[in-house]
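tool_call: predict_structure(chain=1)
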Amino acid sequence: MNKMSIKKDDLVVVLSGKDAGKQGKVLATQPAAGKVIVEGVNIVSRHTKPRRQGEQGGIVKKEAPLYACKVQRVCPKCNKPTRTAHKIEGGKKVRVCKKCGAEI
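tool_result:
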């Protein structure tokens, strides 16, 4: 299992690819694959068949996973993409912004 510094509900910015520069919230993480699903980023079209009677089929647009190394956490205080540092405060491990030092 791989360690990931990005967690669900984090605000991230995409660093490379067709969606470079876009920001979005992390909807889900896949640590075993090292991937994340970001809201409104990496949209793909899925051609779906109706599985049950009365169900609608057609082309569905949805977010696809992208590699976690292609996104970077946005600090809520300085509003810049940053790597995360870890600091131990009161026996608890917290994530800290490398640029401004604010707790994330």
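agent: The radius of gyration is 17 Å. Proceeding to next step.
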